[in-house]
Amino acid sequence: MSFSSNVKDELLKVNDSARHCKIAMLAAFVNLCGYYDGSVLTFFSEHRALLEKISMLVSELVGIRPDIRMLDNRLCVRVEDKTAAGKLINVTMGNSGYDAQAINPLAVSAVCCKRAYLRGAFICTGSVSDPEKQYHLEFSNSDYDHAAALKGLIASFGIDAKIIERKNHYIVYIKEGEQIVDMLNVMSAHKALLEFENLRVVKELRNNLNRIVNCETANLNKVVSAGVRQAEAIEYIRNTVGLSYLSPSLQEMAKIRLEYPDLSLKELGEKLTPPMGKSGVNHRLKKICDIANDLKGDK
Ligand SMILES: [Zn+2]
Prior knowledge:
The protein is α+β, with helices and mostly antiparallel strands.
């Protein structure tokens, strides 16, 4: 089972007790998988559990429980009673009538109903990637106006979705981990949210560890390359004019640097008698390098 189908299964199990929320959810189904010809209301989906949910909502709202059946080789639920179908269109779509492109503002005026609508829309046309792979949640819409209205509904929860066109569809999508968590929360996918958060924590911990390791390696390289440069300068002095050319304090510094080429400045300072701070060590090593450079320049 994919993460996406787990989310849908969980959302299908959420039962809104309030009539307004049932209407809001059915409104999403009318918009996204419904077809109304003026007398019969048909919902098409390959997802049997979704059709069962629709049949249940229809029975709760108008007292008729339609069966799941095949029509033109497609699974569907049909409300053939003209009065019942008209009533369902009226409550979900409002006075302006059936319009698959628009979200009836009356059906989603309360926050609970906005959430129910988004839950319905996700079950119908949504998908979310496995968080271990990537952060991506989307709703596919065949119509731009519906995509824009959906984006607006999502924005009312402070979530910034984007719209992109893909194969004649308008995809409303969210790419940011934190916002996907918010979206799962808005839709009441609490189990999926916990699973998502766990995977996200593990993933981010792993990324942070990699970052720390890379950073320490970079620092180590810096220490080593400075040490190598200093050791080269000291060896140049020793091989040309001899270390006795240096003052006693610089000679001591030079010997310790040669002995410990990969120690940091602080660690080198601790080897000196008396011990010395980082800046003092840096000053002495810089002097040694300057002397080596002067000797090289003399030639
Ligand atoms: Zn409600």
